Structures are given as C-alpha cells and as structure tokens.
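hey team, just a heads up i'm posting the complex here instead of the shared drive bc the drive is being weird again. everything in one block, sequence lines first with there labels, then the predicted structure for the whole assembly after. its two chains so it's a bit long, scroll down
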Amino acid sequence: MRTEAMVRNPERPEGAARHAVDVVVPPVVEVDAALARPRAPRPVGRRRPAGSPWRRVLFFGALSVLAVPFVFPTWWMITSSLKPINEIFAFPPELWPSNPTLDGYVEAFTAQPFAQQYFNSMYIAILVTAGTMLCSAMAGYAFARIRFRGQGVLFLVVLTGLLIPSEVTIVPLFQMFNAWGMIDTHWPLILVSTFGAPSVLATFIMRQFFITLPVELEEAARIDGLGRWRIFWSIALPLSRSALAAVAIFTFLHVWNLYLEPTVYLQTPELFTLPQALTRYTDAYGGEMWNTQLAAATLTALPVLVVFVFAQKQFVEGLAQTGLKG
Amino acid sequence: MADATTIPGRAATRPGVARTGGQPPRRRRPPAYARRDALTGYLFIAPQLAGIVLFVLVPLALVVWYSFNEWNVLAGTFRFVGTENFEKLLADPKLAPVLSATGVFSAGLVVFNLALALLLAVMLNRRVRGITVFRTIFFSPVVVSLVAWTIVWSFLLQDNGGINGLLQVIGVDGPNWLREGPTAMAAVIVVQVFKNVGLNMVLFLAALQGVPQEVQEAARVDGASDRQLFWRITVPLISPTILLTSIITIVGSLQVYAQIAVLTQGGPGISTTVLVYYLVQQAFDFHHFGYGSTLALLLFAIVLVLTILQWQLRRRWVFYEN
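-- predicted structure starts here --
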C-alpha cells in the first residue's frame, strides 16, 4: 500500500480501488504522493509559478488573500480571548488587544467546571482511541489474514456501519442506553465510538493495510511455532504503525469533536465534554460571555493545532483516509 | 507443528473446500490447525461485530419499529399507530422547507467547496518555495475543533461583530448575517466550506499529481492554451476524483448538525433547519421519538440512494482507473 514502487506507478492512481469492496475511502497512495510528500519523486506541475518576478508576486498575493478566511478566525479567536469584555466589540476592530488580560481564561475555569470537562474530553478521547486501535487492528487483521466461514458476509455486516449515519440511530441508541441506566454517564460515548459505527472505517483501513503485508513474514513465524495471537501482536501490529497512526489521529479528532452525542446523552455540567461545554458560557441573563467562550475555544482548539503543525504529514494522511465527514 | 501450506491469507486455502485442481469442491473436515485458526478469527472480529450488531443494526431495526409508534415521553405514552407518522410526515408543512433547506445547503456546499478546493489545488500544485506553508494554512481549519471554529464565526458574523466592523471601516454597512434573510444560509455554507475545504483540496492535489505529464506536454506542443489544457485535459482526467469528492461532500453535508445548532439554531424562521437538525429537534426537544424516527428513516433513505448512486457511478468511471 505504501511502497515506493506504488507511489511512483502512474498506472495505479487508485490504490484502494483494487480490492473487492471499495467504500468511500479515498486512495491512500495518492495522498501520500500529494501532500504528505511535498517533494515527490516525480515532480508534476510547472516548476516555476510564472516567468517574471512580477507574476510571482501576483501569485503569492492571490494566495495570501485566499488564506485570510482560513487564518483570520483563529487569529480573531486568540486575540479576542485576550481582550477585556468591553473591548471585544470595539470599533474600529482591534487586530491586537491593546490591554491584554487573562480574565477570560480565569472566567472559563470558574464559570464552568472547565478543568473537569477538559479531563473528560481527554480521557474519553484517549480511551476510545486506544480501544479503537486495538479493536480495529484485530478485526482488520482477521478479515485480511485469517480464513473462517462466513467471512465475506460478516465483513459486509461490519461495513453497514459506514453506510448508516450516526444521526439515524441516535433516537434508539438514546432509548437503549436509557434502559440500561447509562444516560448521563460517559459509557454511551465510549462504547459506541469504540465498537460502533465510527470504528468501522478504522477496521476497513487496517484490513486494507494487512492485505498488503507480505505473507512470507507470517509463514516464517509460523514455522518457528508462533501462534496466531503472537504473530498478530509481535509481527503484524508493529509493522502496521503507519496505518495505526492514521487510525489514531482521525479517531482522536472525531471523539474530541463529538457534539450531538454528548448533548443528547449528558446533562450534568461536570460530565460535559469540551465542544458541549463551549456553548454553555452564558451570564445570568442568558447573554453570551464572549471573551470567556473564546478563551475556552482557544484552549480547546490550540493544542490540536499545535500538534498538527508539527505532525502535518501524519495528520493529512490520516484525515484524508477518513473520507471527510461534514 | 502445523504444515505451512495451510497458512491462510491466500484464496485457495479456504477450509472445507478441496484444493486439488480439476476436481469439484468436496466438503471435508478442516484440519485441526485451520479450525483453531478460524476460532481465532471469530475471536478477533468479535468486539467489532458485537458493536455493529448492538449499536448499528439493532438501533436500525428499532428506528423502523419506533416510526410505526407514537411515543411521547412527556406524556409517557407509547402505542402502535401504523403508518400515522408517515402520513404526518407527508402532511407536515415544515417538510418542504426543511428538505429545500437541506437541498440548498448540500448544493451550495458542494459547489462552493469543490470549486474552491479545485482552485486551491491547482494553485498549490507547483513546486515553489513557500508553497507548503500555504498548504498548511488551507488545511489547518480541518483540525480545529468544529464547535470552536463555529463559535468564532458566530462571534465574527454578529451584527456588531468583526466582519461588519471591518466592512464599516471601508464604508459598507453589513447585514445581521445570521439573523435575517437569506444571508444565514449563505453564512452557514461559507463557514462550513472554510472548515473542511482542505480535505477536498488534498484529494484534488493528489489527483492532479496523477495526471501524466506526457499528456500535458503533448497538448502544449499541439498549441493548447492554459485554459484549454485545464478544461480539456486536466478536468476530464481528474473527473473520477471530482465525482467521488462531490458525493462524499454531499453525504457529509446531510449530517451537519453542530454548525446549525451553534450558528443559527435553524433560524431565522426555519430557513436553516436542515433534516438532521429537524430530526433532533423533534425527538429530543419536542420529545416526539416516533416522528423523529420517521425523519431518521427519511434521512437514511436519502443517504442510501446517494451511496447506491455512487457505487453505480464508480462502476462507470472505472475506465479512468485502468
């Protein structure tokens, strides 16, 4: 799936399409070549933006203008979170806070149990990510490498998880968890995200990866007397690090950003997750506390953004494989 | 030690099927190793399979069952009403506006998203110093928390917010974007496009790099202009990706909830109440679980049709893949 030869092979642009079941997962190989490897072996496109330096300036000028709506909101979020409440709506708008203050950040933690909510989001996302990695790697490995009766049918059963949007099943899921006494607990978020529909894509990606793993590696291990579990755990899994990284990134982001599910399942502020908590910063009159809300939003968005800047390649690969929801 | 020939992972080693060439397959007891291996297989898929059955298939069956019942949680009533919910759906005066809002949102999103993604991909498909910085910039909103991103935009788009502030500086009096008229829907679309266009951009970049250079050079030698090269060569060659991304984008757009909830709460009026928002509103705000389930089935039907369409189209564009 990720070998140099295939990246270079122009005859096979659609890596995933070779396999029997193709779902809306964009081909991995293409993405590898495109963004994750800015210096791909075969340069495509013109080497220079244009002949004259004048056109070069024009080109980068156009790009910079286009970049404004992508950068400005984040910029505005961070700077506004540092403004005192009376300067938030100042006219003309201030691009840089003249009297920076951390009041919004202090307020974010006092108006709501924000630290607790931060911890909730963090531990749920980590738990689900670890669980999904293990669960999807095992299932993906079995579907790719082990033969058992009913395999094809069972794989199709699992794939239905890709077809059915989670919004379709939210009402019965709410009722089921209600019957089990799990409303206003984190269990629905953890269980559904780890084992339900959101993890199917991970299983699919892992299966696609394990299919490409050379059989000889396992044959050698088999001759050495290793059992299935050992082969999986000490040979296949370590080799699948790149696929696992992709799964980890999109699972973490997915769970970190869940909004509908927490608002449906959770009622106690102490149990809220971050996206849900962000929308609850209102004063006694129901007015929105903008600098507080923006401070909390900054604290939610910034860590992931910083990690992204340092681990771009993995992020782009990982997310491009999710087939973008929304 | 088991014999190496029964290592699975190759098509012919299916247990229970005779592998001797030419003979018709005949059932026989699989070797002990294969049986133990198959058991491991079942154990490996068990968690995922159980999760799908319990959290996808059972709820799907339940949603069908609920849709034939009137369920009012506040009143504590649950009774079978046959097709009443479906009749209610067809007679619902809000259905047409909700569906049209959903359609406008999906159409606006897919057109604007794809056009911008393609434009960015074409611009960024060059090897110039500094280009990776721009790739990072255009992709970065994808990793920003969706609710955080939406909150900032709702802050910016307020009547006295940053956008109108900037407009006023150049002497333009901006509208109250989210609270009046058609600008609300436009705003929701724009916010969503800037959030996620980076993903489509990456897919287009990948497709552009798959366009054989020889074809481009040949066309150029034949005297094709830049515009001709783009519309006659590049676009047809990346059309599979265009189709794929448009369908993924449409299906994704049908699931948009948080953006609507944070930006407009479905308003003004019900002009931005898309199907998912209406569904959640009916089920969890008005506690009509039966009717909410009927709306969920409608959503499922639409997604199903689009997915089947995608598979059909995929079969037709296989031509380009080989």
